[in-house]
Amino acid sequence: MERAIALAQQAEAEGEVPVGALIVQDGEVIGEGWNRPIGENDPTAHAEIMALRDAGQRVGNYRLSGATLYVTLEPCVMCAGAMVHARIARLVFGARDPKAGAVGSMFDLLPADGRFNHGFDCIGGVLGEECGELLKAFFRGRR
Q: Which pTM value belongs to this model?
């Protein structure tokens, strides 16, 4: 999660909301990303999506079976859906997102919703205070 926080700081340095993500498979980082929707002019360029794209390119497959995705903020609906399609094995996130979180805060899509063709373990709150403070400080500075 510390690497995800460093990636979130990269997003902040670029003027983006500070969220960072990485994907680990068999003990090796196979993908990294940070929020880039402003810089990329792409509403789908969330940290998780960028990490999934990076991992898919590196391993040559959009299926990332057995991989763990670490992200500093609870994923939104779009990102949760992308993780289902990628067949991620486990999600570990930091801060909860009461306004858009899809893993228990606003929605409860993962792992509780058994309607998907793929499910995975989810662990939230890992370095949650530190991840949350990074976001709070960013938005305080914007006001």
A: 0.94
Q: Active-site positions?
A: 48
Enter the tokens of residue 89. Answer: 């094995």
DSSP class of residue 108?
Answer: B
Cα distance between residue 19 and residue 5, in whole Å: 7
Range of weakest confidence among 10-14, 116-120, 134-138: 116-120
Distance CA 117, CA 141 (A): 42
CA distance 69 to 89: 8
In the three-class reduction of DSSP (H, G, I as helix; E, B as strand; rest coil), residue 96 is classed as coil
Angle at 99 between CA 126 and CA 81, to 5 degrees: 70
d(CA 27, CA 34): 20
What are the tens digits of pLDDT across the range 15-35?
Answer: 999 999 999 999 999 999 999
The pLDDT of residue 36 is: 98
Check: CB of residue 48 under 8 Å from CB of residue 35.
no
